[in-house]
Amino acid sequence: MSETKTPALQYRFDGPEDAPVLILGPSLGTTWHMWDRQVPELTQQWRVFRFDLPGHGGAPAYPAGSVAELAERLLVTLDGLGVQRFGYAGCALGGALGIELALRHPERIASLALIAASPRFGTADEFRQRGVIVRTNGLDPIARTSPDRWFTNGFAAAQPAITEWAVQMVRTTDPGCYIAACEALASFDVRSQLAGVAVPTLVLVGSDDQVTGPAEARTLVAGIPDARLAVVPGASHLVPVEQPAAVTDLLVRHFSTAWQPAYDSTTGQMAIVAAPVKPVLAPVPSQPAPIAEIAPAVVPQQTSGRADPYDAGIKVRREVLGDAHVDRALAQADDFSGDFQELITRYAWGEVWGRPGLDRRARSCVTLTALVAGGHLDELAFHTRAALRNGLTPDEIKEVLLQAAVYCGVPAANSAFKVAQKVIREETTPEE
Length: 432
Description:
Blueprint: E1 10-14, E2 21-25, H1 39-42, E3 47-52, H2 67-81, E4 86-91, H3 93-104, E5 109-115, H4 124-137, H5 140-150, H6 153-158, H7 160-171, H8 175-186, E6 201-206, H9 214-223, E7 227-232, H10 239-242, H11 244-257, H12 310-321, H13 323-332, H14 338-352, H15 360-374, H16 377-389, H17 394-408, H18 410-428
């Protein structure tokens, strides 16, 4: 582990020490072994660097709650090893990490491959709900259903050993790190920033991927200026495992022909080379080349007083209550109730919930107690959901309601238990 404040990642090298470095990033719930079938051929040209996500594959369990934090840990690890420039291929969450690196640290990336990736993975609510399931039930429900998400039915039936290996990878992951990774995916959304990815990019997807399928891949290709699409037939989400030969061939071709030259340290500039023309498995409609324009510098306006807390409030409100709840509340607002929605967003969520004095777990405890005291059962229902998303377990919510029974009255707590019990059952029962 690194001696700096930022923990390093667990890693391994394969291949000749003097070869250019190619990094392979794993998917959520997997380990670096998901790339085992690619390594023998890739190491003929590159020094392959693989890493495990925090708490995966026996790696130290230091949770990282954002893709940006994962990128920082990867760069800390590489800096400690003297690796400054590299090619990068990542699958799913590993792909999100690659996009983050290309956007924030373009000088480090020579070429990029995004596998089973997306500029936004599902919805924030879906991943935070998965975190609630894991916090309540552990990783076994997620592990048992992983093969359904990762592989086609035919592959899973024909390869029982690989299917069981996949289940065990998830089961042996640290739950806290898995939940943090779900939070990282929940908050990842770079749809408006894809034009900033300025390196040659291969977007690779399985034709039968039901998690991040061809539609998401085409969104990446449409947004990234120098991107090409490859669709691998007969593969689902973990396409490097299910179709290793096809993925290896595509990676070799991409990184052999689209390795962008490094910046010139004396001039601070980089030579621009034409993107190579190469065959792909799925054609992308041609698009007119973007025209570069020099825009005038934007001078920020001077503002007086403190910033309007509305934007911060809507962000906190969505994170705590979920996009679906907030979207529904805002959609129902009209001329009569719209001002009230602005009021609670700006002051309840932007001012009070956004204060640093209490964490969100503590604020949920206070909120539940206050709602029991006031008999506000409708609000208690969605704040019970919020408490689960904020990290409270069902047992901790039970303790809050028992405490409320003493100080707010047994009848009020009796009604509260009925509401909370129903919500907890709905939110924590895994889907089969």
